[in-house]
Amino acid sequence: MQFRMYILLKKLTLHNDDDVELDKNLLTDNTMSNNNWFKRIKEGITTSTREKKETPEGLWYKCPSCKNIIPSDEHIANMLVCPKCEYHEKIGSEEYFHILFDDKFTEIAADLAPSDPLNFTDTKPYKDRLKASQAKTHLKDALRAAEGKINKQKLVVACMDFTFVGGSMGSVVGEKIARAVDRCLEIHAPLIIISKSGGARMMEAAFSLMQMAKTSAKLTQLADAKLPYISLLTDPTTGGVTASFAMLGDLNIADPGALIGFAGPRVVQEPIRKDLPKGFQTSEFLLEHGFLDAIVHRKDLKEKISMILESLKVETTSKA
Q1: Backbone phi, then psi, for 95, in 5-degree steps?
Q2: Does the pLDDT value for residue 201 go beyond 90?
Q3: How many structural domains does the chain have?
Q4: What phi-psi label fits residue 80: left (phi over 0), alpha (psi between -120 and 50 degrees) or beta?
């Protein structure tokens, strides 16, 4: 209420004193809720369209968790994390690449794009859905992979984008992870996969489900070469992604408050007919029950991963 009063008073000072006369006695705590707290002594006061000023969009950010409102610049400076409740806003592959890599990075299989082998149609053809998502997000598919350096150590990162068909896993996602693993084997570098997905892509049916086995097999090759694989689970990570590569890390870490599970809470609750524990399927719940190794704040992500890789003494030079 005090903030609103401040804005109202500030707006009123833009008018001439002859136009509006404030009654200071009406601005007491007892009458702040009363709408008649000022007297207008002139009728027909207008402001020309040219003189009207509108607040530009995007100046403020309202946290969807705690409803705290902060300047957008402050929110961006805090890596899109609410400073009050530490709610981690969803970010995409481009943001993660800039957080993790030192400076430059090279994308792997950047031109790989999905097809429609089944000619699938639901409410609209799958081909049209893909074209619409590509035009809206400027992405080829729901995952991008890149290689670069993290604190001067070689690293390959595969990151999912939830904005592309809900981050669903199709054949391109599986193939890009496979190529990321191949690149790790080639340059002898560790791998990080950042998961953010609604699960398998139903429009590709069995082709999508095959990616669960394909990615798991490729990660076995990485393990045989004794190269570390760190899985970062972010909000949300569900379905076939959780049931495959997202939970196969040598270290499984997560964002604070991330939703992680196979099926949604309601789907789990209906057959057992019991209330689920508080915080069920959150990263904190999974850490407490041994499914995660750590929860890492976004601002600490680069340094923590760098420290882990350093402690594992990963040899970053190519094999002879």
Answers
A1: -65, -40
A2: yes
A3: 3
A4: left
